[in-house]
Write a structure and sequence with these properties.
Blueprint (H helix, E strand, L loop, with lengths): L1 H18 L2 H20 L6 H25 L4 H5 L2 H6 L5 H33 L6 H25 L4 H22 L2 H4 L2 H13 L9 H5 L6 H28 L4
Helix pairs in contact: 1-6, 2-3, 2-6, 3-6, 3-7, 6-7, 6-12, 7-8, 7-12, 8-10
């Protein structure tokens, strides 16, 4: 019974966002991407397919993260401000079913976004003579997983702070999560025990988004061992599960009055 309620809320959320025509914008972004990529390759000698793949994966990542940030931050606040959440919970619908339904609905939008731009990217790359290998599919999958992690971070922070601070803190965590590994390799940091401890604590507790970034590997045809791929996949899934539990826990205890 609760599962049906969760899926109903997920479907409603998906349709609501779909009607906002955000995916139509994604389609036009994809078409623009293909045109810009083709034009850019005319000024590139030797590796037009790499330019196409670079542009495509970059836009795929940016659009996915943008959806997570700007739709995720209002996922609950809009429902609370419009008091829709009170009507739903009064039916009654368990709070965890409500929040899971909202998240699943937005995740569905993310999946469609990734699918559209991934198909356009790979089609353009193939048209220009590039090879579509397994690592490209891994890269697209990791971009999707990264966007889900960021979505959960944004929603979690939106339960603790206002929308502006939630977006700013989420962007900061995203940036730090990508540079943390390189920062740990800086000589100044290695020579500073306090900095080492702080970064180690960050690395252990907060999201290491760099683990889901395979773009450089796929662009330069570097092979990656299965242990690396599956290890980072497990990290992304487990950390996302932890964030999801934290979101549900906080929403269950949030005062909606």
């Amino acid at each position: 019974m609760t599962l049906n309620k969760t899926l109903t809320i997920a479907l409603y959320t998906f349709k609501e966002i779909w009607k906002s025509k955000i995916l139509l914008n994604v389609f036009f972004i994809g078409m623009g991407l293909m045109v810009v990529t083709y034009v850019a390759t005319e000024f590139t000698f030797g590796v037009p397919e790499r330019v196409a793949l670079d542009f495509g994966l970059g836009m795929l990542s940016l659009s996915s993260l943008g959806i997570s940030l700007f739709l995720g931050v209002g996922l609950l606040s809009k429902e609370i401000e419009s008091r829709t959440v009170y009507m739903v919970i009064a039916r009654p619908v368990p709070r965890y079913a409500f929040i899971l339904g909202k998240l699943i609905g937005l995740m569905g939008i993310q999946a469609v976004n990734v699918l559209i731009l991934a198909i356009m990217t790979m089609s353009t790359t193939r048209f220009l003579g590039g090879e579509i290998n397994g690592l490209i599919f891994w890269t697209v999958g990791f971009i999707f997983l990264e966007s889900l992690m960021l979505l959960l971070v944004v929603v979690l922070l939106s339960l603790l702070a206002n929308n502006i601070l939630s977006v700013l803190f989420s962007l900061a965590l995203l940036l730090l999560g990508h540079v943390i590994k390189d920062t740990q390799e800086i000589s100044f940091v290695k020579d500073n025990p306090i900095a080492v401890k702080i970064l180690e604590a960050y690395h252990f507790m907060l999201p290491a988004f760099y683990k889901l970034n395979l773009k450089d590997f796929v662009l330069y045809n570097n092979e990656l061992p299965p242990s690396y791929l599956f290890g980072n996949l497990a990290y992304g899934i487990l950390y996302s599960a932890f964030l999801l539990l934290a979101v549900v826990f906080l929403f269950q205890r949030k005062n909606l009055d």
